[in-house]
Design goal:
By secondary structure, the chain is of the alpha+beta class. The protein has seven helices and 19 strands.
């Protein structure tokens, strides 16, 4: 009987001490909680934000340097560039000069008409690598290295609004339109570069329609030049008309090889599992309209990678 009484007493004593133990744990945890609250919330958000992005740029570039606008290195044979989470660098739709040969030299970007003081924005999330002035070239310019592997250059600005090594998100203001450097009128000189090599921005950006061309652009060494030529014909100065032969070079005429596309034409690249109905719903049009524009029949089966005109 004494043993049972003793066991019961010990049990009651243990149970009564549990709340005290809980309070002790809470008391010890309190300083930790206060320290966590003291951590810079902006820094934590930055870490979370950065971790949410795969960064192909880390594999493409060997160094980080604020001294040069671009330095060409070896290009991969092919490379997939995500165009998601983009922002058009300006809301201007007027292209004044194409990528390519101009006045006996190579023009490495697109010139977009902007006025002095117009807001220029970061095209993709990334980190500002260069903020400099070049009197005989870019004028006041900014270079951003993006997580998707691209670098973008914004030239001839009247004012830069960012600093070197600053993290930016797509759409963040980075400068104001201007006419600095080697420029004959206010405009934005916009470049897209991969491993320092200039790529035609028209391959990825459609300024007239204020949109990117697709969710991804896949660079191929073997076909890049042909694709660049077609992109300029479609989306450059005086663009919007393209021959069937040029279409075949980049598989843009699978559905309607003899079509001549108007300046405002827009296209959709068919993904696996998509139907005419799902494409029409996504693009805000009708099945009948897509079928008519591309000369399709009701029993036509779409092919992955096929290009359809939807406007």
């Amino acid at each position: 009987m004494k043993i049972v009484t003793k066991i019961a007493f010990l049990a009651l004593a243990t149970m009564s001490s549990l709340p005290m133990m809980g309070q002790d744990l809470l008391a010890r945890q309190a300083p930790i909680d206060r320290k966590m609250k003291a951590v810079d919330s902006v820094a934590l958000q930055h870490i979370i934000y950065t971790e949410n992005y795969d960064s192909p740029a880390e594999d493409l570039y060997e160094d980080w340097n604020n001294k040069y606008a671009h330095r060409e290195t070896a290009l991969p044979d092919s490379f997939r560039i995500s165009l998601k989470d983009f922002c058009m660098p300006t809301d201007s739709r007027l292209i004044t000069s194409n990528f390519g040969s101009r006045w006996g030299r190579q023009h490495k970007g697109l010139d977009i008409k902007v006025y002095i003081g117009d807001t220029i924005r970061a095209a993709f999330p990334g980190k500002v690598r260069v903020v400099r002035y070049e009197g005989r070239g870019y004028g006041k310019y900014v270079v951003i290295r993006h997580y998707n592997g691209l670098e973008t250059i914004y030239g001839h600005m009247s004012k830069q609004l960012v600093t070197e090594d600053q993290e930016v998100r797509a759409g963040d203001p980075i400068g104001l339109g201007g006419n600095t450097g080697r420029s004959t009128g206010s405009h934005l000189h916009f470049e897209t570069r991969l491993c320092g090599v200039a790529l035609n921005p028209a391959l990825m950006f459609d300024f007239r329609n204020q949109d990117v061309v697709d969710d991804y652009y896949v660079f191929h060494k073997s076909s890049y030049q042909r694709e660049s030529t077609v992109a300029t014909r479609l989306r450059g100065v005086g663009g919007g008309s393209i021959s069937a032969d040029a279409n075949e070079d980049v598989e843009l005429a699978t559905a309607a090889p003899a079509a001549n596309y108007s300046q405002e034409s827009r296209f959709h690249k068919v993904k696996k599992g998509e139907t005419i109905y799902s494409i029409a719903k996504r693009r805000g049009t009708t099945v009948d309209a897509i079928m008519k524009l591309n000369h399709l029949k009701k029993n036509t089966k779409l092919k992955t990678g096929q290009i359809l005109k939807y406007n």
